[in-house]
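Researcher: If only I could read backbone structure tokens as easily as an amino acid sequence. Walk me, if you will, through where the backbone shape changes along the chain. I have put the entry right below:
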Amino acid sequence: MRHKIGYRKLNKTSEHRKALFQNMLNSLIKYEQIITTLPKAKELKPQIDKIITLGKKIDLSKKKNLFSKLQNKSSVKKIYETFSKRYANRNGGYSRVLKAGFRTGDDAPMAVIELVDRDPNAKKIDKPKKVETTKKDKIKEKEIVSKPKGK
């Protein structure tokens, strides 16, 4: 019987599991949608819901508690400034887990965990912007590539 067993160990030590979920929470707060395995997503869902609920209560002690769990100032700032306003009228259920097929390498069940009412532009935060090259730059690149090597 599995009485009083409250979470999945995910075949990791407690320190590794704690660091894993801390990193996943920070990524989920930053990008508002991440792709992971189904068991990890199912374990992450209650944690992100609790963190957003803590962030809705504006208090210094709650803010310090959040920082101790996340260890990231930008994540705590985003929770207090963005998520507390976005989810002010919602009493829970800030995230959802969607099944996303199976991974090709080891056939592990994959899932997408995302925040409800998420910002679609949040996924593009770290992607570099394309720099347009001028015609002169393209001509110089062609000249460099087309020059034959002398013997």
Q: What stands out?
A: The chain has a mean pLDDT of 89. Strands lie at 33-37, 95-102, 109-115. The longest helix spans residues 38-56. The first strand starts at residue 33 and ends at 37.
